[in-house]
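Protocol step 4 of 5: obtain the predicted structure for the target chain.
Materials: sequence only (see below). No template structures provided, no constraints applied. The aim of this step is simply to have a reference model before the mutagenesis design in step 5. Sequence pasted as it appears in the construct record:
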Amino acid sequence: MKFTPANKSLKLAEDKREKIAKAVFDGNRVAEIITKTAAAGEYGFQLAQECPLDLRATTYAKGLITKLKTAGYNT
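Step 4 output (structure tokens):
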């Protein structure tokens, strides 16, 4: 039985998480959701993806959180 080296498996997982996070935390998409949500009278919303992965450590999530906090949003 041949196993993928651990560092290669880790890289594969990280790459997949970043790809998913890129779609979920797209700034333009989130800005549109904020506008539509506010126009509907709602105060907030929660982003979620189809697969149950914790994406908080991804560069896209961190970047979006920084931008939202700078704009005065609670994250």
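Step 4 remarks: The longest helix spans residues 6-24. The CA atoms of residues 6 and 12 lie 10 Å apart.
Proceed to step 5.
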